[in-house]
Design goal:
Elements: H1 2-12, H2 22-32, E1 37-40, E2 46-50, E3 60-65, E4 70-76, E5 82-87, E6 99-102, E7 105-110, H3 119-122, E8 132-134, H4 140-143, E9 152-155, E10 160-161, E11 166-169, H5 172-186, E12 193-198, H6 207-215, E13 219-227, E14 246-249, H7 259-271, E15 276-279, H8 288-291, E16 299-307, E17 315-318, H9 319-337
Length: 342
């Protein structure tokens, strides 16, 4: 478990917003190349083939996306402040007063000071368009020495252990899926399988389409991070709960999951003593939405890490849940590849 968490820590601290995934891709290739065959497709997806002890009855692909949400510079004001758009979905309240970085340049996302706001303004959340990034520049010319239009940045957050089990970091969506895949590829495999590390998910499920088309699997397992709204014990719908195991989805905004595969996944978790829970909200979407519709169709399931404050500067999760995600992915891979679900 320590090796898996250590890989996750290293991955989460790398910067890899959609369109700028090079650092994450390079790290993954270095970690997995000694253990499997690796190729990079024209979009920048990593497609890995792991040779197992046996040939599978069914071809199984496991997928995780390597990109994270970020921000892109759209203009620079005369005073040297940066205006920006988000890359992927980030709520306005998750942006305000956060540290962000563009390579070696650090900035703070700011807004109009509260003491300069009118009575009505004080009651409302500032609009996204009113936010700016302060990098300490004296004017536009000074800012342009280190920043260009189109530069993409990320939250500036380091990993922290909040307790023995609970951690905090950025980009857990979806570096946790990448960490699980790396560890699976580094271990001996019972059956041959494919692992895809795909680009552009935060911009609309882009890389998974071409990667799946290339692999042409019978089954796919999407490894993800998902919302945990478990801050209040009396919440009617916590979606998932941190510390109660890997989450299995029955439906989201991109996929109505194969019911037989969904039931089989929960049954497999129970039979193997792996903590698992059901994602109770029909919300969001992930690469499964593209994967299951590729070519003639792919039977697909999603295994997610329950995560508080997803798509923010600091996601909170459980190391025990990470290990549950890994264990269920490994067992389910072998069950599907071996023909336990026809």
């Amino acid at each position: 478990m320590n090796k898996l968490v250590n890989i996750l820590k290293q991955l989460s601290e790398l910067d890899g917003p959609s369109g700028n995934e090079q650092a994450v891709r390079d790290f993954i290739i270095k970690e997995i190349s000694p253990y499997c065959d690796v190729k990079i497709d024209p979009l920048g997806n990593i497609i890995a083939f792991k040779k197992g002890e046996k040939s599978p009855k069914y071809k199984v692909m496991l997928d995780a996306h390597i990109d994270e949400v970020g921000i892109i510079v759209t203009s620079i004001t005369a005073d040297g402040f940066l205006k920006f758009e988000t890359v992927g979905g980030i709520e306005t309240e998750a942006l305000m007063c956060k540290r962000v970085r563009f390579g070696n340049t650090i900035g703070i996302i700011g807004a109009k000071p509260i003491h300069q706001s009118s009575g009505d303004e004080r009651k409302k959340l500032p609009s996204r368009d009113s936010l700016y990034i302060d990098i300490g520049a004296t004017d536009k010319e000074d800012a342009e020495k280190v920043i260009s239009l189109g530069d993409i940045g990320t939250f500036d957050t380091k990993w922290a252990d909040l307790s023995e089990d609970i951690f905090r970091s950025k980009a857990i969506d979806d570096r946790v899926g990448c960490a699980v895949l790396i560890e699976l590829l580094r271990q001996n495999a019972e059956y041959d399988f494919y692992a895809t590390f795909t680009v552009g998910e935060e911009l609309g499920l882009r890389g998974a389409k071409t990667a799946t088309y290339s692999v042409d699997p019978d089954f796919a397992i999407a490894l993800e991070s998902t919302t945990a709204a478990d801050l209040h014990k009396n919440s009617e719908n916590p979606v998932t709960k941190v510390g109660e195991g890997v989450a299995v989805s029955f439906m989201d905004r991109a996929t109505l999951y194969d019911r037989e595969l969904y039931d089989f996944t929960l049954k497999t978790a129970k039979e193997n003593g792996i903590p698992a829970q059901i994602k109770t909200a029909v919300a969001g979407g992930n690469n499964a939405g593209t994967i299951h519709l590729t070519k003639g169709g792919v039977r697909t399931v999603t295994l997610s890490l329950p995560s508080r404050y997803i798509h923010s500067s600091a996601t909170v999760g459980s190391k025990k849940d990470v290990f549950s995600q890994f264990k269920l992915a490994k067992v389910l891979l072998n069950e599907l590849a071996g023909g336990k679900l026809d």
